Amino acid sequence: MDLKSNEPFWLVKNGLLASYPSLKADEECDVLIVGAGITGSLIAHQMIKDGYKTIIIDKREICNGSTSATTSMLQYEIDVPLHELKEKIGILGAVESYKACSKSIDDLKKIAVEIGSEAGFTKKSSLYFTNEKKDITYLYKEFEARNAAGFRVQWLDEKQIQDKYGLEHTLGGILSEQGASIDAFKFAHELLDFNFKKGLQIFDKTKMESVKYFKDFSEVATAGGCKIKTKRIIYCIGYESKELIKDNFVNLKSTFAIVSEMDDSNISKLSETLFWNTDEPYLYMRTTDDGRLLIGGGDEDFRNPEKRDRMIAKKEKETLKTLSKLLPEYEFYTDFTWAGTFGETKDGLPYIGTHKKFKNSYFVLGFGGNGITFSVTGMEMASHFMKNEEHPLTEFFKFER
Ligand SMILES: Cc1cc2nc3c(=O)[nH]c(=O)nc-3n(C[C@H](O)[C@H](O)[C@H](O)COP(=O)(O)OP(=O)(O)OC[C@H]3O[C@@H](n4cnc5c(N)ncnc54)[C@H](O)[C@@H]3O)c2cc1C
Q1: pLDDT digits (tens, 9 = 90+) for 119-164
Q2: CATH topology of domain 9-70+185-248+348-397
Q3: Which end of the chain is more exposed for a tag (fewer CB within 10 A), N or C?
Q4: Quick check: 43 and 49 in contact, CB under 8 A?
Q5: For ligand 1, is residue 35 a contact (CB within 6 Å)?
Q6: With a 6 A CB cut-off, is 297 part of the ligand 1 pocket?
Q7: Is the C-beta atom of 34 inside 6 A of ligand 1?
Q8: pTM of structure
């Protein structure tokens, strides 16, 4: 599957940060991680920390899947609002899922410090706002639900939003303390490099072609004709999991992003906050650590990569029209536009767990707008899986839910 258009900003900005060899001989390990994007990199970090002989493979150059296209807003706020998630899965699952995403942001910060990351992890607040009268009641209900669950939130009215951020025509919003942003492409590279030096074996351009499952181990055949004997497999293959697992568990969407030229002085009021609104699909924006405004949204059902990429120019126009209502005085000069594919689930939650058709295996599929924070939660869950322990979130993130 073609996961993204050409020229996602991070790929151009960072270039080819590292390249690893492909697998050329048979190997053996405790755990094989399939997929070296941000998810596989985080899971590899955990596996090396837990002391396992770990191999990670990717059929592309590493981090060249969705991780190169992401806009990397790190939010505890899941695509499905807390008050609606409570109705869908019960209060315990809903609040624990939100709390897990909140903890992930703090965990990611600790990892960034631990590995000496230069990927621009920046703590930010987050504003969930509306410009639609019809959404005010719904948004206030969400504010009350978050407050009741103990999240540190504040209600801002139209004037407060205008004074603080210069955004026009908003009618109110929930300001949360917890949030962050990062360059996930660079961060994943850094994680792999850090763990490579600690014994992680990394092979790119190495495609898992087929697997034979035995009682206590599996044997993976690669497209290059090599075999990897492994006790456990952890699949971190992102949206291409839809090609491997035949269940109807995720809807693929096309999504679009644009980033401005560097323009620090004109966007300084926006630089400490992540923004998203109640539109469907929602518009979101943040600044980058090199002083650009990054905006995303315009989601459509995914049909094929050609159709997705043909829409880029139209989506740019629509997004900038919305932006001009919010920031009428601001001149946005586009530097890069791109499109990516992402997955939406019925409850906004990821699939992290075992699957009955894949023995000795675990999936970490951080779908939705919180893909990255869910992948951080996946580290702890995968660690439990390796020790045959249950994790409290298994119930809410499992395939058969
Ligand atoms: C435009 C856009 C904006 C986004 N914004 C946000 C955001 O603001 N915040 C957020 O949290 N999330 C966001 N997301 C989602 C986020 O990007 C994803 O959750 C995340 O990148 C997924 O990472 P991954 O490592 O799971 O998948 P990927 O990066 O796609 O990595 C999976 C890897 O598996 C490899 N692979 C697949 N099959 C095989 C095989 N058979 N053998 C070997 N290797 C294989 C692929 O080559 C790929 O490199 C966004 C996504 C897009 C597209």
Answers
A1: 999 999 999 999 999 999 999 999 999 999 999 999 999 999 999 9
A2: FAD/NAD(P)-binding domain (3.50.50)
A3: N
A4: no
A5: yes
A6: no
A7: yes
A8: 0.97
